[in-house]
Amino acid sequence: MRKKVIFRGVALPYLLLVPQLAVTIVFFFWPAGMAVWQSTLRQDAFGLRTEFVAFENFLDLFGDALYLNAAWNTVIFSSSVAALALGAALFLAVQADKHIRGAGLYKTLLIWPYAVAPALAAVLWLFIFHPSIGLVGRAFGAIGIDWDYRVNGGQAMTMVVIAAAWKQVSYNFIFFLAGLQSIPTSVLEAAAIDGARPFRRFWTVIFPLLSPTAFFLLVVNLVYAFFDTFGVIHALTRGGPGNATETLIYKVYVDGVQNLNFGSSAAQSVILMVIVIALTAIQFRFIERRVHY
Amino acid sequence: MHRRTLLTGAMSLGVAAPAIGQTQPIEIQFWHGLAQPLGGMLEKRATDFNATQTKYRVVPTFRGSYPETMVAAIAAFRANNAPHVVQMFEVGTGTMMGAGRAVKPVHELLAETGVQIDFNDYLPGVRGYYSLSDGRMMSMPFNSSTTIVWYNKDAFRRAGVDPDKFPETWQGVAEILPKLKAGGGTAVPMSTAWLTWAQIENFSAIHDIPLATLANGFGGLGTELRINNPLVQRHMQALVDWQKDGSFRYGGRNNAGEPAFPNGEAAIMFTSSGFRARVQREARFDWGVAMLPYYQGTPNAPINSIIGGASLWVMNKGPAAGGGRSRDEFQGVAEFFKYLSNPEVDAQWHMDTGYVPVRRASYAIAREKGFYRDNPGADVPIEQLLRGGGTLTDNSRGIRLGGFVEIRTIMEEEFERAFQGQQNAQQALANATTRGNQVLRNFERANRG
To answer: B236 and B352 share a domain?
Structure first.
């Protein structure tokens, strides 16, 4: 069924590709190549003395308890963010799909958080959770819960997960809502006539039909949690307390920009690059094959 | 990494050969890391200097926080476009000292330009921090502060504690904490900002015990941390225990904990003397300042505390041979430093900002003008820097560790674990020592070759 465009000669198609290729080379291949090269070097901060160390930066990382800690944090953080953001968005989308009064307003309001910059979103949550200036933080204190995310790693992780997930709910919501609206009513009516109650209809009919959307969103959410949550963590906890909320991407920043340890930071970027390539490949490979109606 | 490549590109596009004509003043780029209102006061010093002569023009630019300014200056150097002068916080001193031909030492600058600055008049704690062990100055002291005690006199009165006399010793502090907890009426009796600067670095200095070997790193790159010693263990364990029983509250990294004092949550706060302007503006209660307490029975204690704040470093343009600076440019930098060292200028800076005067002469001027009569306690930080006669020991001269920014973060991380109850103070100090020494060895390796 694919439509094929036939060009006469090779000059025009290549010419048309040039802008895209140039952008890819300048903004991806060149910096990525530099990162790979830098990951084999050790340098002082000023770049005056350079030593080639081959894979030493990588070996150091895998032997570093803190790097493994950051990797573990990333697993916990990403899966929690994805679960929370997907779950909340699915619930809201199902509610919005019903015939309710003011559905338009409700949908619009739900989409708003997506437009808020991560750092601003984090500040917003700070005003909610800060133990001395935050509304909820003070309420916790008032009812006797010892709430202080600055000295409690579990609480800090909970807070960054909520803040990061909240931003992603809107995005997921739009996709789920579109997915729900594309489910033919005839299927649902047939199920209802067969005697399936709403709860059963959801799990046996709606949810399987939503699975391609859900899988796509799962990958997008994981990538988001891996790479786009720097702002939230930086503004809320700076990776602390201890290293309780330090994720892989945050550690790249700490080691490269704060500690000026370019070799190690580049090695960490290379590892992250491999992870994101793998995630993307999985998405492309599975999204149309394994998950189907 | 990416930022640097982009920077290189942007720089090479933007750099045109500066035309130095007879009428055109020579531009001196000056990057600083002070936010408003302090940044404006600093920029005013540059404007004032420009008004005193026509040959040079100092162009101050705000580059973000201290760490951001440091990173920006280093990236610019790598891209061959470093500023002439950069304001560098004291924690970055070790890194700058190891920077080799990236920096132009101030003693060289003054010798080559024939400009005289009387560094003997500078406070020893200030001079020592920024000089080599033989006394030659490496950078230009500018805004210095030290950590002192801020306390809420109203809370002291409510708790039945003498509001005019803050305890001189930690034993005394331990006695008043239960009273403050019972009757002080604040959320928590005591808190601290700058955990490592106040409670470990300055704590070690005033007790005359080493933070690291080789005179806290002044003696060479082979230095090792010595923070895991009985006195620091004792003190930090006390903080951990007080955190547990509610007498103390850790308020976060760097100065994140500061607001708890002016808003009345903590009756006692340890932080920079530069906190004064904010307390004056925000505190709705009677407050006082005091010198850091010490453990009674420690030989030699208390002696002088060490400084924080920042100094001005002269930078070469880039890694290319020769450094890329003209004689005239260096002359301009030297003249600017000479202007800043003027006691009148320095005294005014001190009175405007709350930073300590870096010269004895400026201290005398501020006193003559009645500044300390009108602002009781404003001389406490200076007196504390001169405590013990003002003769520095190897333990109180300052700290010169490469990668010190990272080491401070490590200490904070380990104590955040201790405050959560995951380890005791001794374990936190042992872990911080192991991890910190790794940073020192990496720095030694990168800067030796």
So the answer is: no
